[in-house]
Design a protein that fits this description.
The protein is mostly helical and 328 residues long. Helices cover 74% and strands 1% of the residues. It has a two-stranded antiparallel ribbon. The longest helix is centred in the C-terminal third of the chain and has 27 residues, at 216-242. Keywords: Cell membrane, Membrane, Transmembrane, Transmembrane helix.
């Protein structure tokens, strides 16, 4: 990745994340999609769910420097939790989504003890092993998860008892957008707090931060747990709007996809998750519609071009462009 040098790097690393014209642009895009792209609301809802998922990984990786190839573990836990809750307890969506966040957060809390004691390749392999173990557990526990056949046949009640999930996807799209806005606002607050700012310091130089008296392990542990809970929210949203959960919710492919989304959008800026999710999901859908066999090649070419010409992702390129405009 391109690095700023000297003072510029320090300033870029610790700059507070404020609401900008990019946020306004994203809100306008969501409104226009709702009113003028009704035939694509299901695809748009998937983009929003993936944006929530990418935000969760950006919090851990982009701000805390925690590398992960198994973030789908938390997505899958949230998805199965929401589905099982709807099947056996209540079809009310808000409580199901909150429970998905809590259970995924608990899994992050427990696994964080092991994951955060390692670094680099070891950390990557440990997160991958954790997700693989959960995948096998879900496959074996057929009486609970239905194994390869997946969980289906559950209903989701209208949101607040008023807004039914219609076949056209209007309620689902608004529902996931509202949840995304709440998650985004929460993360803006978090990354600008002492926890978020010290996490960025830990990412840059953990030794120095430890010498300054910062409880490095505890801060990363909190960040990782919150990241897991948000990934659980994404999984819960997916289970509720699609009304089916399969083993692919815990797969390595999903973990790899969200890493690619962040590579496309850019890490450490939050809104990079939006750009990455939009590019990845829309491009994958259109490429697969044109050529179901070789559609991955198109995605690969785009990823190569992004890495070559915008190594900090689309968000990084936009930030540099804005800085140049400001300088002029």
């Amino acid at each position: 990745m391109n690095k700023l040098s000297g003072t510029g790097l320090v300033i870029a690393s610790f700059r507070r994340q404020r609401y900008t014209w990019v946020d306004v642009l994203l809100v306008v895009a969501a409104v226009l999609t709702f009113f003028f792209a009704e035939g694509y609301l299901a695809l748009a809802a998937l983009v929003v769910v993936m944006a929530v998922f990418a935000l969760s990984l950006d919090l851990a990786q982009g701000y805390g420097g925690v590398e992960s190839l198994g973030h789908a573990a938390f997505f899958g836990v949230g998805a199965y939790t929401a589905a099982l809750y709807a099947l056996h307890v209540s079809t009310e969506p808000i409580s199901g989504l909150l429970l998905a966040a809590v259970i995924a957060g608990v899994v992050g809390l427990v696994t964080g003890f092991a994951v955060l004691r390692t670094h680099g390749l070891t950390q990557l392999m440990l997160t991958l092993a954790m997700a693989t173990l959960l995948l096998e557990l879900a496959n074996v526990a057929k009486s609970l998860t239905n194994g390869d056949d997946g969980l289906a046949g559950y209903d989701i009640s209208p949101v607040f008892g008023l807004f039914d999930f219609d076949i056209y996807g209007h309620t689902a799209f608004v529902y996931v957008c509202v949840v995304l806005a709440l998650v985004y606002a929460l993360l803006k607050k978090l990354v600008n707090s002492s926890i978020g700012l010290t996490a960025q310091g830990i990412r840059e130089n953990p030794v120095r931060m430890r010498m300054l008296g910062v409880p490095v392990e505890r801060r990363l542990w909190v960040l990782y747990t919150i990241s897991a809970a948000i990934a659980g929210v994404a999984g819960g949203l997916s289970a509720q709007i699609n009304r089916i959960v399969g083993l692919d919710a815990l797969s390595f492919t999903l973990s790899a996809n969200v890493v690619v989304m962040l590579a496309l959008g850019g890490t450490g800026r939050l809104y990079g998750a939006f750009f990455g999710a939009i590019i990845f999901v829309v491009l994958s859908d259109r490429a697969a519609a044109i050529d179901p066999t070789n559609w991955l090649a198109v995605l690969g070419v785009v990823l190569i071009l992004i890495v070559r010409f915008a190594p900090d992702g689309v968000a990084g390129w936009l930030a540099k462009f804005s800085e140049k405009r400001g300088a002029k």
